[in-house]
Amino acid sequence: MYLSNRSEILEEETSIFAHCVTQCELHHHDAHECLWVVKGRIRVQVMDEILLLQEGDVLFIDKALPHATQSTEEDNLVLCLQHNFAGVTLDTRPMKAWSLVQKNMLPTIKRLIAHLWWEQHYKGDHWQQAQSCLLGQLGLLFARYFPSTNTIKADSLESTLLMNDLLRQITSRYQEHISLSLLAEERGLSEAYLSRYFKAKVGETFLRYLTHYRLEKSLSDLAQKPKKAISDIALEHGFPSVKAFNSAFRREYDCTPTEFRLKRGTVNLVSIGQAYAGVDLVILKKKIMPWLDKQFLYL
């Protein structure tokens, strides 16, 4: 089953937390979700659309909307708010598609989310009242400036499951010599159709996406296993040869795998397969401090 009804908020009415995303599979829950990438980059699948969020980006996900998250590098840091805003249907669009009025609301949104995290984390005097006030302001802003009239259609859900299936195949079989033609044949679809579909939804070709994914997975071995041969890492991550691995690695990271290993050999990367990893509070505070009204902080 591709859609799980997991809810990170559990029984809490509101949850706001910072985390380092590695991979969280397609799921939905009964709360709106606001993601703010305070460091690094992540990929987010919302229905059948794949979005690349960079540092500073904010994304809203309407409640019950299927979505998944995945890292593109090991040191991302994301601030996540989950709350059911009564009577609100959120507009889930990337920031580049926002109107000028919506873009002008971004500093206010970040300020409110930053203060929500601060109140939740430090729990100063009357923090619950402060949190309620902040959520009220945010809810009004969403209702007024970010309403959505989109509805989930049956064909959209079918497309979502197809996209999730393709991404799962990449995740589970990237070490094999998989191809778009093979996946198309397994699903009774034409390669041409699947190629157009993937490019339209993801924004890049299947082969380029697969290559990026293989490179990202190779980083932990390069950093954490200094004695492991480059050739073994290349083959174990689906590359046909060391030459192909070196070429793709240089094109993406502007250095060779060996040079990367020398620079990043001491980095402690998060474990693959873990949905959320711990965060460095010092870095988080440094990133969100500019958005906080200092007179309201409990230091």
Keywords:
five-stranded antiparallel sheet; 45% helix; alpha+beta; 9 strands; 299 residues; four-stranded antiparallel sheet; single chain
Can you characterise this structure?
- By secondary structure, the protein is an alpha+beta fold.
- Helices cover 45% and strands 16% of the residues.
- The protein is built from eleven helices and nine strands.
- It has helices spanning 100-104, 106-122, 127-145, 154-173, 180-186, 191-202, 206-224, 230-236, 242-253, 257-264, 281-288; strands at 14-21, 23-27, 32-39, 42-46, 49-53, 58-61, 67-71, 77-83, 276-277.
- Strands 6-3-8-1-9 form a five-stranded antiparallel sheet. The protein has a four-stranded antiparallel sheet with strand order 2-7-4-5.
- Helix 2 packs antiparallel against helix 3 (127-145) and helix 8 (230-236) crosses helix 9 (242-253).
- The longest helix is centred in the middle third of the chain and has 20 residues, at 154-173.
Strand order of the largest sheet: 6-3-8-1-9
> Termini distance?
46 Å
Strand content: 15-25%
Name the average pLDDT. Answer: 83
Number of helices: 11
Helical amount:
40-55%
- Write down how many β-strands occur, each being a DSSP E stretch of 2 or more residues: 9
Radius of gyration: 21 Å
Q: Give the low-confidence spans.
A: 1-11, 265-277
The secondary-structure element order is EEEEEEEEHHHHHHHHHHEH
Biggest sheet, open or closed, and with what strands and sense?
Answer: 5 strands, antiparallel
Note the overall shape.
Answer: globular
